[in-house]
């Protein structure tokens, strides 16, 4: 996956976020989203290690060893920020107070099941906050490429990797398209970057309804 | 979401509907959102309310005003006794009272805001207040299963709010307010003072703004 | 019950508190205890409405409407105090972080059962923090007169009033004596104010072992 | 009780015994009590330890040092993966790993300190991490029952402590520290700075001193 592909997915996912929403961004493509929100955005970023009001990456003179995000990268805090402990942070998540979680995935099924933490046969030794976020956030947006590095579909009929949660995903943004789960059914609602329905169907094993809306990009 | 600071107390409590469950902060009248309660008393006709509050005010004060209007159908509290008129209303069959130990009351509201489906506590096991509740012995100690408490609307009081809706509480006026702010579909905060964004120290914010929908200044 | 009797019970109960302990005091006789601790005491007072470090009653110019105890009376806070919400306060109590609760009672049984919140046939509409305190505090000390206003024994074989908790009481201080539960058995350990074992036995229906220690008072 | 400030880091960690369960604060190395960990590595021979910490340090840093000494028998964490040597130790059968979702991990420690006997959470239901746990459908949503987590000793880090043991945390170095301070039989706090009683604002104290047994200054 090239940086250009990642950036295009992040740019499209950024359009899903509404003014004033509280959003938690996962590692990888989601972490590129702030670059597409603009400096005047009213979207508020939450990081599960204990901060509401995440600001941009620090400049050289601004580095603070006590200020990191959940990816353990240095960050800044915006005016109006608040710090809290981890139980409080996950109470926010599990209690439905975080509006949106954007995260990557290994697989998403047509039923909204998501697998994004463990690969069978490999070590299953890190889950972090993934399960809490996909269960708790009001809207779950997955950003990922349409196929794995081995070319296998990632929007699948049934997840083969261990689940993070069942029925949790609302929106999937890939380099080819946007899928939305509407009344429990997967809908292809937008084609990106000149992709065709056929292009999407070839790399998607989940059944889906084609219901194209007006495009948001380009 | 971030909070709105642009509407009046009357408009804010206008969001309360007949039949709603409403949480109201305060320990007695300390930390109670008196401006919001007064607006509810004077400018709303929502009735048949379930009130979740540690006390049902005092005679003719705070929630005691709403009680006199006959608009409270049910109370969930740890201490009705501080308002003799609430006790009289229960005895007259006009108020349905659910009494909960104070720590369980606080914890159940926290659970309601924190997405916890229920919790086991040793408090109340083997007493009148455990009747009808699931009991379980854990490590040799009897526990009861308590359900989370949630509401349609929470009315809370904070000494200071910033324009985003972050809240800071003063002294013992904190009490149930930060818990109730988390446990309702709509949280309306009354603030003694509304300050610009950035004026509250980020480490000292007790209720981050994502819990607060509307901020109204105290009168 | 005269004020002199109340004060003597409070004075004796104060001797049960050890330096540095965190203590929660109930309404009535327990609230007289601070007067017997002395200004230099290292005992720290907790009030369940959200303060650790309760100070003396305020003088006329010191009254603060935001600063009350669980009896809704005005208080002050000492240097080193901390405020917290009610869930945190009861987490301290239930979690065993409050060393001692001192409270009044209607009845205490030889098994340490306590009834102090409800009278059958009357309204059962106020429990407050009583159940949490007797279950959670590491040591529970009951201060009360030996008999009710109608002359009935209050240290009983079996409580007749609705229980606050079973097996929770460690020490009972009345105007006549000190009882301690040792290995689950009630022991009469001290006679107060020239009372005799006979005086105590007459007003006590709970079985008890006489095991007098050296007196702490007088 | 109020805390002692008169003993050294080495004496403090000397209270840890072979076979103990030890909680260690920090998210990665941020907010980790590095002075106390170093004292445990250098001046204690307690072994066969169960470590409760979000991560098992990094290779050769923080708890990673203790891991290299072979003194950790069991880890309870949400993310072992941040230390490849911990992963290798698990695969070699030298470290017994219990993986817990991070929010459940935090909540279970809070429950341990708060006298809660267990709680139902929707997180993890239907996944590998729910295996062996009681499941229950509440309001149509599958939940799992989680047990509280407690320890013999907690090692936490705070930017500031006062001489009574009240603690204040700076920025995201707060993380698991306030929770762990509540959930052990003995809580040892490392403080960046120890200030006189009265210097911390009472509304800003995050960990009241009744949770803290020993305070040691960072080196």
Q: How are the SSEs placed, and which strands pair?
A:
The complex is a heterotetramer, with two copies of chain A (about 220 residues) and two copies of chain B (about 220 residues).
Chain A: H1 3-14, E1 22-25, E2 44-47, E3 51-54, E4 77-83, H2 86-94, E5 100-103, E6 107-109, E7 114-115, H3 130-136, E8 139-143, E9 155-156, E10 171-173, E11 177-182, E12 185-191, H4 197-202, E13 209-210
Parallel strand pairs in A: 1-2, 1-5, 5-8, 6-9, 8-10, 12-13
Antiparallel strand pairs in A: 2-3, 3-4, 6-7, 10-11, 11-12
Chain B: H1 9-13, E1 21-24, H2 34-43, E2 49-52, H3 63-68, E3 72-77, H4 84-91, E4 96-99, H5 102-114, E5 118-121, E6 135-138, E7 141-146, E8 151-162, E9 167-168, H6 177-180, E10 184-195, E11 214-217
Parallel strand pairs in B: 1-2, 1-8, 2-3, 3-4, 8-10, 10-11
Antiparallel strand pairs in B: 5-7, 6-7, 8-9
Summary of the model, kept short:
With 218 residues, chain A is α/β, with parallel strands linked by helices. Chain A has helices at residues 3-14, 86-94, 130-136, 197-202, and strands spanning 22-25, 44-47, 51-54, 77-83, 100-103, 107-109, 114-115, 139-143, 155-156, 171-173, 177-182, 185-191, 209-210. In chain A, β6 (107-109) and β7 (114-115) form a beta hairpin.
Written account of the structure:
- The complex is a heterotetramer, with two copies of chain A (218 residues) and two copies of chain B (219 residues).
- In chain A, 16% of the residues lie in helices and 24% in strands.
- Chain A has helices at 3-14, 86-94, 130-136, 197-202, and strands spanning 22-25, 44-47, 51-54, 77-83, 100-103, 107-109, 114-115, 139-143, 155-156, 171-173, 177-182, 185-191, 209-210.
- A ten-stranded mixed sheet of chain A has the order 4-3-2-1-5-8-10-11-12-13. In chain A, strands 7-6-9 form a three-stranded mixed sheet, with no helix packed on it.
- Chain A is globular and about 50 Å long.
- The mean pLDDT of chain A is 95.
- By secondary structure, chain B is of the alpha/beta class.
- In chain B, strands 1, 2, 3, 4, 8, 9, 10 and 11 form an eight-stranded mixed sheet that branches. Chain B has a three-stranded antiparallel sheet with strand order 5-7-6.
- The longest helix of chain B is centred in the middle third of the chain and has 13 residues, at 102-114.
- The relative contact order of chain B is 0.19.
- The model of chain B has no long low-confidence stretch (mean pLDDT 97).
- Chains B and C meet through helix 4, helix 5 and helix 6 of B and helix 2 and helix 3 of C.
- Strand 5 of chain B pairs antiparallel with strand 5 (118-121) of chain D, so a sheet runs across the interface.
């Amino acid at each position: 996956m090239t940086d250009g592909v990642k950036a295009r997915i992040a740019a499209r996912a950024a359009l899903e976020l509404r003014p004033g929403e509280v959003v938690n961004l996962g590692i990888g493509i989601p972490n590129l989203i702030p670059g597409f929100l603009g400096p005047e955005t009213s979207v508020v970023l939450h990081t599960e290690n204990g901060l509401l009001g995440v600001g941009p990456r620090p400049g050289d003179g601004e580095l603070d060893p006590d200020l990191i995000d959940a990816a353990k990268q240095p960050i800044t805090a915006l005016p109006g920020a608040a710090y809290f402990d981890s139980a409080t942070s996950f109470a926010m998540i599990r209690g439905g107070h975080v509006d949106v979680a954007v995260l990557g995935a290994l697989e998403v099924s047509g039923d909204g099941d998501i697998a994004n933490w463990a690969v069978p046969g490999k070590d299953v030794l890190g889950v972090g906050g993934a399960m809490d976020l996909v269960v708790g956030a009001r809207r779950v947006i997955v950003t990922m490429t349409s196929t794995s590095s081995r070319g296998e579909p990632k929007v699948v009929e049934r997840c083969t990797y261990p689940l993070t949660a069942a029925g949790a995903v609302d929106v999937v943004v890939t380099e080819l398209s946007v899928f939305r789960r509407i009344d429990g059914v997967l809908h292809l609602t937008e084609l990106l970057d000149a992709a065709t329905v056929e292009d999407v169907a070839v790399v998607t094993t989940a059944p889906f309804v084609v219901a194209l809306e007006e495009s948001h990009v380009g | 979401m971030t909070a709105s600071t642009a509407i009046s107390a009357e408009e804010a409590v206008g969001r309360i509907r007949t039949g709603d469950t409403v949480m109201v902060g305060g320990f007695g009248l300390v930390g109670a959102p008196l401006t919001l309660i007064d607006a509810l008393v004077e400018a709303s006709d929502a009735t048949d309310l379930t009130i979740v509050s540690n006390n049902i005010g005092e005679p003719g004060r705070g929630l005691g005003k709403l009680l006199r209007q006959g608009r409270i159908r049910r109370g969930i509290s740890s201490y009705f006794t501080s308002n003799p008129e609430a006790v009289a209303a229960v005895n007259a069959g006009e108020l349905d009272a659910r009494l909960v130990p104070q720590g369980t009351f606080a914890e159940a509201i926290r659970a309601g805001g924190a997405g916890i489906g229920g919790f086991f506590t040793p408090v109340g096991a083997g007493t009148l207040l455990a009747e009808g509740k699931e009991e379980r012995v854990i490590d040799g100690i009897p526990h009861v299963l308590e359900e989370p408490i949630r509401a349609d609307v929470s009315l809370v009081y904070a000494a200071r709010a910033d324009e985003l809706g972050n809240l800071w509480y003063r002294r013992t006026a904190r009490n149930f307010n930060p818990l109730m702010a988390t446990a309702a579909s709509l949280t309306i905060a009354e603030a003694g003072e509304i300050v610009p964004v950035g004026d509250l120290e980020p480490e000292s914010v007790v209720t981050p703004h994502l819990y607060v929908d509307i901020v109204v200044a105290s009168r």
